């Protein structure tokens, strides 16, 4: 009797075990994988190269993006961040991306204008009254067109990050009136609209990589430059300049880019992780950029090493007046919609 009971129990256990084995073999292949056990060769590595320091909005966002991707992919996707142009210098990183030596970059929008010239709309002086207006512009029809332009050129734009508004600095005199620019030489980013901005003010320009600016100023090869507070402070530019005009005349932001061919061959699951991570980081980055620029302005005020002039309403009006011809030229070349769609002009007859 006892023997029989024991046999029945044994058969039941056997049935249970085989049923669970059959069920587990029917599970889809997305079971949890311990990625710590995966060799380096099996991981997806994304080399993210950028040209600014670690303690900048872009530098911090790149790091945060890397750790989010690691966490979400359980270590399967490794984003390696190379700051300060260690891997690829300014002006060379797009080449590196297209050659697939690096897989991710976040250049200033002005630096992709040789591929998609319409991006120069963001460089138009005094085009936006606030960062909110920039976001509105980029989230609308124009933004989609600009993003599509990048795809057509073989890029995959993953996201848009802010830095902030640019300010003018120079060594020679306070810049309050358009005529104050006359004869001075400024370093600029490679954008035709930015070049025209200084040309209208009768100033000279030269386009140099960001990492050269400090030395150019130190050696008196240029008189001034334009940049955001956080970039000025992170590169110690203010230590080589006497005057800063808080003009907020132009926007500086970034497009986070991959090569489209690289993106297309990533597994769908990985694409999803990258998209989710960039979304999370972007919300954080925008707030971080705003805060860092505020803190950097405070640092500039506190150091008392540079004379800061806040452009008055009337001075701003004069600068805008002097720079107006650029708008007409831009409109003639790319069409009125880029200007009509600026939040400040929306609904108004242009
Ligand atoms: C950057 O913020 O990426 C650099 C901007 C510049 O070249 O001035």
Task: Outline the structure in words.
- The chain has twelve helices and nine strands.
- The protein is an alpha/beta fold and 350 residues long.
- The protein has one domain: Bacterial extracellular solute-binding protein, family 7 (D-Maltodextrin-Binding Protein, domain 2, 3-Layer(aba) Sandwich).
- The chain has a six-stranded mixed beta sheet, with helices on both faces.
- The structure holds succinic acid.
- Succinic acid binds at residues 51-52, 58, 108, 163, 189, 210, 227, 231.
Q: In angstroms, what is the radius of gyration?
A: 26 Å
Strand order of the largest sheet: 6-5-7-4-8-9
- Indicate the overall shape: globular
**Which fold does the CATH topology refer to?**
D-Maltodextrin-Binding Protein, domain 2
Tally of discrete structural domains:
1
What is the count of DSSP helices, taking H or I runs of 4+ residues?
12
CATH superfamily: Bacterial extracellular solute-binding protein, family 7
Portion of residues within helices: 40-55%
Terminus-to-terminus distance: 99 Å
* Backbone structural class: alpha/beta
Q: Quick one: CATH class? A: Alpha Beta
